[in-house]
Amino acid sequence: MLRFLAVVCALMLLGGCTSAIPYRVESESTLPPVALEFTAPLGDAGESINQGVLLSLPSAAHGGLEYFSERVLVPFNRHPAEYALRRLLTYTGTTQADPLSKTTTLSINPGSTVEISGNTATVNLAPSALSLTNKERYLAARAITNTLSQWGDLRFVNLLINSRQPGLDTAATLPMGSLSRTTDVSVDEQWDAINRAAANTAGPFSAQATIYYPVSAGRGVLAQSRPITARSKSMSDLTYALLEALSLSETGLENTQAVPNLIPLLASDILVEESPGSTGRVVRLHFHENLNEELIAAGVPRSVMMAALTYTLTTFLPYTAGITVTIGNEPIAALVPSGIFEGAGEQILFENNVMQRGQFQRFLLNNVSLYFMNAQGSLTTSLRPIPAHQADNPRYLLGQLMAGPEATDSVPGLANVMPQDLRDSDILGINRVNDTVLVNFSDRLTQLTEGFTAQQEMLMVYAMVNTLTQKPHTRQAAFFINGIQPTSKPGDLDYAGVFLRNEGIIR
Q1: Geometric angle at alpha carbon 295, from 292 and 300, rounded to 5°
Q2: Which alpha helices (H) appear in 168-288, and where do they start and end?
Q3: Angstrom distance (rounded) from CA 21 to CA 24
Q4: What residues contact 111, with CB distance under 8 A and at least 6 apart?
Q5: How many angstroms separate the Cα of 308 from the Cα of each of 93, 177, 197, 390?
Q6: Fewer CB in a 10 Å sphere around the end CB: N or C, the chain?
Q7: pLDDT at position 187, please?
Q8: How far apart are CA 283 and CA 263, in angstroms?
């Protein structure tokens, strides 16, 4: 009976309960081997995952937005939002749902992807969307927002067309702002409310805007959507409101660096001009010379400050192609960034001194959660900003985990749980099948953990599991050594089967 109870307890531990850790136990009875439905990956050329998504589309019956189920193919190392968006834009309609437009072919702007930073996604549509009416563009923006916000990590969406914010009115003077998901209010009602607000030309104007804040240690910018209030709807007053939001000393956003108060540093009034050829407006900012000293004192590199200004203003201000910045008597005509993840040391030239949004893509970061050991011997979540396009790449995430804690992480004083000499080359392959991440290590992992205690090995494994399952579309992980799941000695951690995310080990 005691042996039978031991077997039952071991089976329960292997079942994935987050409050229990699977260990092998001494027993005369032998558990059957775990039958794993996955094979070890070799390389990272994983197949795309056939994933179910919801598309927000106009109902054929009443024209209001409803959700319709579809399936899309999603690469294992990318966020599903972009692929759901592509399916939404190419949807041709059924007897139940209409396409977003019956007359215009919609697509993502060539060379663009869905930018995800913070809890905000930015979508850049091709110029064909300009042929939509104002109301049709607003309907499309709402449908895109509802579709992308079905994942818990996205709450706000910005819509650009040909890298410009289209605005809500024909003159492109009223910002669309950062949109959030709508459930109980029809698009028609919202559009009528917008038109009533637009008719009131006097008084302050409030909207949700995405502000791009410099990251600590000057590695790029992070997005945060927040409400702003301008004195009026004029482009210059809207710009002042954005600069005030960018100058906040407390943003509540982890890993960001406070910037100098930009308003008193302005040497002249903000100018907003139409650029030649009607390619878009240009916002001209002229700062006092001491902005340079203020940036150095704040620990914000000039290149990162220019990225924050360019992203913030061009994302919100309608029909804005770019900005110019003059500091003292020096117009910013070129930058050579240093310290950023990608492109450090490469000069960026600005034609006619106009800085455009697309020139700063390498500066866009996103916070990811990494798990390191605290003084109490459990795991702590620490946030680290990494290139936004790598935030769903499991190999990149494991590489950041293997690198250990950094001084600029959100939580200081933590210790690495991974073997010190483990390298990227020791990951023979990594893939995701449905909601399971598969990692195939070389036998160096076994060699480097030879002296680990059971507690150290447990923390290592669950640091990897929790790091790899932080996205809503992943929930478990399986590990292999040289293509097979290793058998363990009595008392060691049992690698067989899959590991569920374990919140109970996080303090």
Answers
A1: 135
A2: 187-199, 235-246
A3: 10
A4: none
A5: 40, 17, 29, 20
A6: N
A7: 80
A8: 15
DSSP notation for 405-426: --TTSSS-S-B--S-TT--GGG
Alpha carbons within 13 angstroms on the beta-carbon side of residue 443 total: 4
Contact (CB, 8 A) for 465 and 394: no
Task: Specify the DSSP class assigned to residue 182.
Answer: -
| Amino acid at residue number 39 | T
Place of tokens 């004029």: 234
The residue behind tokens 């939509």 is 132
Q: Which string of b and e fits 404-437 if b means at least 16 CB within 10 Å?
A: ebeeebbeeebebbbbeebeeebbbbbbbbebbb
The whole-number pLDDT of residue 1 equals: 56
Residue among 170, 171, 285, 290 at smallest CA distance from 239: 285
DSSP string, 76-119: TTS-THHHHHHHHHH----SSB--S-SS----BPTT---EEETT
Q: Which amino acid is at 411?
A: V
Give the tens place of pLDDT for each residue, 408-427.
Answer: 899 999 999 999 899 999 99
Q: Nearest-CA neighbor of 479 among 470, 468, 471?
A: 468
Look at residues 345, 348, 346, 368 and name the one whose alpha carbon lies nearest to residue 358: 348
Report how far residue 175's alpha carbon sits from residue 194's, in angstroms, rounded to the nearest whole number.
Answer: 11
| Among candidate residues 435, 497, 503, the one with its CA nearest the CA of residue 472 | 435
CB neighbour burial string for 272-287, b if at least 16 within 10 angstroms, e if fewer: beeeeeeebbbbbbbb
H-run or E-run covering 468: helix 454-468
Domain boundaries, the chain: 21-36+365-505, 47-200, 201-363
CA distance 287 to 300: 16
Q: Residue 85 pLDDT > 90, yes or no?
A: yes
What distance separates the 2 farthest-apart alpha carbons in the chain?
87
Pairing of strands 156-161, 120-125: parallel
Residue 246: DSSP 8-state: H
**Distance (Å, whole) CA 305 – CA 351:** 19
In one letter, which amino acid is 146? N
- Confidence (pTM): 0.89
Beta-carbon contacts of residue 486 (< 8 Å; ≥ 6 apart): 446, 495
